Amino acid sequence: MRVYLDHNATTPVDPAVRDAMLPFLSGDFGNASSIHTPGQQARAAVETAREQVAALIGAKPQEIVFTSGGTESDNHAIFGCLFPSASSISSASLDHESTPRVITTAIEHEAVLNSCQELERRGVAVTYLPVHRDGVVDLEQLRAAIRPETALITVMHANNELGAIQPIAEIGKIAREKGIPFHTDAVQAAAKIPIDVNVLAVDLLALSAHKFYGPKGVGALFVRAGTKIGPFLFGGHHQRGFRPGTENVPGIVGMGKAAELARLALDADSQRIAVLRDRLERGLLSQIPDSRVNAARAPRTPNTTNISFAGIEGEALVIALDLRGIAVSTGAACSSGAVEPSHVLTAIGLSAAEARSCIRFSLGRHTTEAEIDFALRAVPEAVSQLREISPAYRKPASAR
To answer: Do 232 and 307 fall into the same domain?
Structure first.
């Protein structure tokens, strides 16, 4: 039996999404910028997908820009706000009278954190807000960090490792009161929890199709009408001049179909998956001593749980479970192979050793009760075997 519990890394392409894409990989191969019939057929398909993605997040179709994925969307939002014109791309010509500032958090995805580090190299001041033990930012600390020169606030919607959901609507209200553009990386939130860009009061929001059963290599950036943002790439005048490059029509069509399916199934999927996730948590905690759910008290996406198993190395457990037919991860797929412990887990107060003992289980649309039962047998067995050979684990006195 193979059990896939790593949906935060990527999801399988839904069969309906694949079927929607196939015509545009064969006969309907037109360039969406061409004015002839094949081109206009492709253009119509792209615009339908734009409507489908917009509907998922409560946006207007003209506010959706298709990209190559979440990383590009995040980068464009951040650099586009700080460098709003082509003449301000170099650090010597920032379009600000004084040193601009950006506010973000210590637990962002690398697409945001590394972008912010590059901003610092270009002369931008960045404030990295800490989070509580539950992985949630403190709103009062955010308010206190705002300065007259603050040019952008960027806070992720849901954390990829913990599932912790940030108070985005409250942050959006603060940003709007201060007249500061607000960006959120919603890659791990989309299709798991309801999103309405107007309720959240965000100006920029990043999405990635492969996180909700669409194809890899395509994403979207919501840009609220009137938001001052510059180009990130330079070339032709595609997508109203906002993002150059020939549109990836099959990928965009697939993302649109995935967004439509996600919108229609959101409530049912979320409720069912949450029940399975909670069952997995309870079962593992009851069977495995010295185990703990990280950010358990935070509002979380319904599919994600991050559990510490004291005395073991998370990577060893990932391998042990893979040999038993279960796919899980130690955290962000983008950080696989990293030697350092997760910056997210150390930010919530875990020691390096504790952070390395954590496993992320992320369930999906096709996860079944039988698969959870299988995991509830395999994980305790694997943890027990690893602890037997671990010099870092001391058995409870009652078990000696």
So the answer is: no
Q: Nearest 5°: CA angle at 374, between 337 and 193?
A: 65
pLDDT at 146 over 70: yes
Cα distances (angstroms) measured from residue 124 to each of 78, 115, 149, 155, 204 = 12, 11, 10, 17, 19
Q: Three-state SS for 314?
A: helix
Rounded Cα gap, residues 348 and 291, in angstroms: 16
The Cα 399–Cα 3 span in angstroms is 31
**pLDDT category of residue 334 using cuts at 50, 70 and 90:** low
Query: Are 250 and 319 within one domain?
Result: no
* CATH for 357: 3.90.1150.10
Summarised one tens digit per residue, pLDDT across range 354-385 is 999 999 999 999 999 999 999 999 999 999 99
Q: Last residue of some domain: 208, 237, 261?
A: 261
Check whether 89 has a pLDDT greater than 50. Answer: no
Measure the CA–CA gap between 330 and 358, rounded to whole angstroms. Answer: 6
Instruction: Identify the CA nearest to 361 among candidates 335, 327, 386, 385.
Output: 327
Q: Give the global pTM.
A: 0.93
Q: How many residues are present in the chain? A: 400
**333: containing domain:** 3-8+266-399
pLDDT at 236 over 70: yes
Residue 90 has pLDDT above 70, yes or no: no
Same domain (yes/no): 129, 240: yes
Closest by alpha carbon to 291, among 300, 304, 278, 281? Answer: 281
Same domain, 306 and 237: no
Buried b (16+ CB within 10 A) or exposed e, 34-49: eeeeeeebbbebbbbb
Residue 317 has pLDDT above 60, yes or no: yes
Q: Which parts of the chain are beta strand (E)?
A: 3-4, 64-67, 101-105, 125-129, 150-154, 182-185, 204-208, 219-223, 291-293, 304-309, 326-327, 358-362
Pair (318, 181) in one structural domain: no
Q: How many domains does the chain have?
A: 2
Torsional class of 123: left (φ above 0), alpha (ψ -120 to 50), beta (otherwise): left
- Structure tokens given for 93: 């010509």
Catalytic annotation present for 334: yes
User: Do 247 and 273 reside in the same domain of the chain?
Assistant: no
Q: Which of 81, 116, 334, 358 is catalytic?
A: 334
Out of 235, 261, 287, a domain closes at 261
Name the token pair of 383: 């943890």
